Every structure is written in C-alpha cells, then in structure tokens.
Amino acid sequence: MRLSPFSNYMECGDSNPNALGLYMAEALNKHELLYLHMVEKSFKGTFIVAGGYDREDGNKVVAENRADLVAYGRLFLANPDLPKRLEINAKLNKYNRDTFYIADRVVGYTDYPFLE
C-alpha cells in the first residue's frame, strides 16, 4: 500500500495531511499488510521511503536505519536498468516528468536508453 498524504500532484491534496497520514498508518497496523510505502515512519512493518532519492541518499537512509527500502519511481522510469546503474554507480538518465502520465506511446515510458 502506498500513502501520499502530503502530495498535491494532480490536485490530490488534503486539508490536514499530518493527521491523515498518522491516522492511516495507525489504522493500517490492524491489518496484515506486507508493507506500507509513505513519507514518514508511523508504521510497524517494512518501511519504504520515496521522493527524490538518489543513490547516495538512498544508501544513507537505509544505513542510518531511517528506512528498510528506498523506492526510486521517477529514476526507474528514466532508467530501465536502474538496479545495474546503482550497483556500478553509472550515470543516470534525467527524467522528463511532463511525459509520465500521458497517452503518447513513443515519448516517455519506452524511449529512455539502457546502458551500453
């Protein structure tokens, strides 16, 4: 499950995101979820952070026990071989957020290059 109580992307905001996020995390503790993916640790299970992490920041947040896993959504869209790039510290393709949620089948999801 992913919660994004602080997101206003695509006009999906909430008037009280702090209260909403805390309420949802605590309410979900009653269920046997495999993981919760959100911006702040209020959940007792596997905690995944997301939101602009690069290789260095992702490694740091896990090493400091501030998260169990790191999600690299935007970077994954632009780097179809992201695990390999992170492993060998290769240069990353820059993403174009304007192409993320459009119906164009040529520009966006499928046109980012793999490592040579």
From TrEMBL:
<dbReference type="InterPro" id="IPR045247">
    <property type="entry name" value="Oye-like"/>
</dbReference>
<dbReference type="GO" id="GO:0016629">
    <property type="term" value="F:12-oxophytodienoate reductase activity"/>
</dbReference>
<keyword id="KW-0288">FMN</keyword>
<protein>
    <submittedName>
        <fullName>12-oxophytodienoate reductase 1</fullName>
        <ecNumber>1.3.1.42</ecNumber>
    </submittedName>
</protein>
<keyword id="KW-0285">Flavoprotein</keyword>
<feature type="domain" description="NADH:flavin oxidoreductase/NADH oxidase N-terminal">
    <location>
        <begin position="37"/>
        <end position="92"/>
    </location>
</feature>
<keyword id="KW-0560">Oxidoreductase</keyword>
<keyword id="KW-0521">NADP</keyword>
<dbReference type="InterPro" id="IPR001155">
    <property type="entry name" value="OxRdtase_FMN_N"/>
</dbReference>
<dbReference type="InterPro" id="IPR013785">
    <property type="entry name" value="Aldolase_TIM"/>
</dbReference>
<dbReference type="Pfam" id="PF00724">
    <property type="entry name" value="Oxidored_FMN"/>
</dbReference>
<comment type="similarity">
    <text>Belongs to the NADH:flavin oxidoreductase/NADH oxidase family.</text>
</comment>
